[in-house]
Amino acid sequence: MLWTVDPASDEPLYAxxxxxxxxxxxRGDLTPGERLPAARELxxxxxxNVHTVLRAYQQLRDEGLVDLRRSRxxxxxxxxxxLTAVEEALARFVAAARQARLSxxxxxxxxxxxxxx
Length: 117
Known about the structure:
Layout: H1 13-27, H2 39-46, H3 50-62, E1 66-69, E2 73-76, H4 84-99, H5 104-116
Antiparallel strand pairs: 1-2
């Protein structure tokens, strides 16, 4: 799995990692029993503080998606959720936004505002 972060994003860096892991589990890119990269290794590769990665891993543990053990690291334990309905709704949303000729930024803003409700 390729991990990325956008330092310019409004979303905190640790939350970006959590989101990526959730999606990877949901899509089957990460499966139960698979190990996540060591926190120090991931932090180094993304030029992050190790505590940022650990915070993401702890949140994933609290959500039941990973198990954290000193000797084994972070291991995926969660099962993927069915996102079919969400993906279909998003496809319809994007199609409607394109039809209305909204920019990607405006589309994203609309989605973010709706999520805040």
